[in-house]
Amino acid sequence: MKLISLNVGKPQPYAYRGKHGMTSIFKFPVAGARDVTAVNIEGDEQSDLSVHGGRLKAVYSYDRSYYDLWKNIIDREDWSYGLFGENLTTEGLADDSICVGDVYQVGSVVLKAVQPRFPCFKLNIRFANNNMIQLFTKVARNGTYFSVLQPGRLQAGDKIHLVEKTPHQVTIQQLVDCYYNKGADKDLLADILKIDFLPEYLYKAFKSFHQ
Question: For the domain that residue 135 is a member of, what is the CATH number?
Answer without folding.
Answer: 2.40.33.20
